[in-house]
Design goal:
alpha/beta; single chain; 12 helices; 13% strand
């Protein structure tokens, strides 16, 4: 099944909320006047694109309609697609993991689906021919390592863990040492999802980053921030803090199948300039999908 077809199948709530409302606007107005733009802006805000981002989209559409002398609502829809697609193209959505080993550092608050995302990433990269090792560096949340153990066994990949409460950086050190000794291609590291003390978070992630730099100075590394799409604009606030703490290279947006407000994808790209690299659209292993901006917009609008 293509990305476009799977998006349409899985994101019915989002598609109905955004696409359905936009259908009503583009079919309900015979001319492109102020009330058309007002209705469009309100629809975008309700889809969780955010007030400022929605205003920028509408202003860009006004300018494009004037510049290209667009008269018909259907032509305006095509122009909107082009604007939204361009908005999502803020960085490289590819994963760059060419060195042996490479590292994926997975960060995010508790409850967003980090562990499940890591399990799905492990399965996907093993299927792609990589020898994968998982690292259970979230040592503060009860049973986090046990959950990752279940995924490791399900995926048929290795896992490095320590006892609950161990130093996360020490677990990462052990995992990198094991990866080098065992000839692993890829290490995927779980991390603690705490935001209650920003300084502690920054210190912990900085320490982990220092260990990776020291042990694998030339390794390719991706730092993926996992956000729960159902949290909407709160996810944006989380992203700001984690971006400051860890230097995020990409976002994984989970639970998109469970929300009608998938517009948060646009808010993240527009506000933070961070590319969405994966989206989660269900519980199955193959429901973590590499992100395609053009087809995502095509499905939504």
């Amino acid at each position: 099944m293509s990305f476009l077809n799977k998006i349409k199948e899985k994101l019915t709530k989002t598609q109905k909320a955004i696409g359905g409302s936009l259908d009503g606007i583009f079919s309900g107005f015979s001319s492109l006047k102020d009330d058309f733009f007002d209705e469009l802006e309100e629809t975008l805000i309700l889809a969780d694109i955010g007030v400022e981002t929605s205003m920028r989209v509408v202003e860009a559409l006004r300018a494009k309609i004037k510049e290209e002398k667009i008269k018909e609502p259907e032509a305006a829809r095509e122009a909107l697609r082009a604007i939204l697609t361009e908005m999502l193209q803020v960085g490289d959505t590819e994963m760059h993991l060419e060195t042996k080993p490479s590292v994926i550092l997975v960060i995010g608050v508790n409850g967003v689906g980090k562990t499940t995302t890591i399990g799905k990433l492990g399965a996907a990269w093993k299927q792609a021919g990589k020898k994968v090792l998982l690292c259970a560096a979230d040592t503060f949340r009860a049973a986090a390592a046990d959950q990752l153990q279940v995924w490791a066994e399900r995926d048929g990949v290795e896992l490095v863990r320590q006892k609950e409460g161990a130093d996360p950086a020490a677990v990462v050190f052990d995992a990198l040492s094991a990866a080098k000794a065992r000839g692993s291609d890829l290490v995927i590291c779980d991390t603690a999802g705490r935001l209650h003390n920003k300084q502690n978070l920054m210190n912990e992630l900085s320490k982990i980053s220092h260990i990776i730099d020291r042990e694998l100075p030339d390794a390719d590394r991706e730092t993926l921030l996992v956000l729960d799409a159902t949290t909407g604009q709160n996810g944006l606030l989380q992203a700001v803090q984690f971006q400051e703490a860890a230097g995020v290279t990409g976002v994984v947006l989970t639970k998109l199948d469970g929300t009608a407000k998938g517009g948060i994808v646009f808010a993240i790209a527009d506000t933070l300039g961070i590319p969405v690299k994966y989206i989660g659209v269900g519980e199955q292993v193959d429901d973590l999908m590499p992100f395609d901006a053009t087809e995502f917009v095509q499905a939504m609008v």
